[in-house]
Design goal:
Layout: H1 9-28, H2 42-71, H3 75-103, H4 113-147, H5 150-153, H6 158-186
Helix pairs in contact: 1-4, 2-3, 2-6, 4-6
Length: 187
C-alpha cells in the first residue's frame, strides 16, 4: 500500500528537512520567543535532560534491534523497531527544543575551560553535525518505506541510505549520551 506518491519522495524529503532544520536552528539561535511555549515548573525543565538520555539509550536499542532484524530477514520486526526509533527521535527532539526555548538557550558547560574547549565542544560539534546530516537521510528512508510495497523496496535506495542513516543516528545518540554525562554527571 502506498502512503506517499513515489515521485514526491525527494521533494518531500527536501521540504521536511528544510522545515525541520529551520525550526531546530531557530530554537537554538534564540529566534523562537519563550512566550511561544507553555511555561513549565523548573523541576520539569530540570528533568528533561534525564528523560532525553533515557530516550537516547532506548533509541540506540531500537535502532540496533531494527538493524539486526533486517539482517535476519525479519521485515516486520525491522519496521516496528525503526518506527519506534523515529518516534523516540521525535520525542527527544520535541523535549530538547521545548527546554531550549523555555530556558532561553543551551545549558552552559559547568566544567573547566580546558575540558570545555578540547573535549566537550568537539564532542558536541560532532554530535550536532551528525544529527543535522542524519535528518534528510531519515526522511528519505522513511518516505521510501511508505511509498513502496515491501517486495519493491529492495530495488530502491532504502537499504543503502538506511545503513547510512542508522550509522549516523547511532553515533549521534551515543555522543549525546557522552555530552549528557559531561554536563550532568562528571561536572
Amino acid at each position: 500500500m502506498e502512503y506517499v506518491p513515489r515521485e514526491r519522495v525527494r521533494t518531500l524529503t527536501a521540504v521536511l528537512s528544510v522545515v525541520s532544520l529551520a525550526v531546530v536552528f531557530a530554537a537554538a539561535g534564540g529566534r523562537i520567543p519563550q512566550s511561544t511555549v507553555p511555561a513549565a515548573p523548573q523541576w520539569v525543565l530540570d528533568l528533561i535532560p534525564h528523560v532525553n538520555v533515557a530516550i537516547s539509550a532506548a533509541a540506540i536499542g531500537t535502532i540496533t534491534v531494527g538493524w539486526r532484524a533486517i539482517r535476519r530477514g525479519n521485515v516486520d520486526r525491522h519496521r516496528l523497531a525503526m518506527l519506534a526509533s523515529f518516534s523516540l527521535f521525535v520525542a527527544f527532539l520535541v523535549l530538547y527544543l521545548y527546554r531550549l526555548v523555555a530556558t532561553g538557550g543551551p545549558q552552559p558547560f559547568p566544567g573547566p575551560d580546558a575540558v570545555y574547549q578540547f573535549v566537550y565542544l568537539p564532542l558536541l560539534a560532532i554530535h550536532i553535525f551528525l544529527a543535522v546530516v542524519c535528518i534528510p537521510f531519515l526522511y528519505y528512508v522513511l518516505l521510501l518505506a511508505f511509498s513502496h510495497p515491501i517486495d519493491e523496496l529492495r530495488r530502491t535506495a532504502h537499504a543503502r541510505f538506511g545503513r547510512i542513516a542508522a550509522s549516523l543516528w547511532l553515533i549521534s545518540f551515543a555522543l549525546g549520551i557522552v555530552v549528557y554525562v559531561l554536563l550532568h554527571v562528571v561536572y
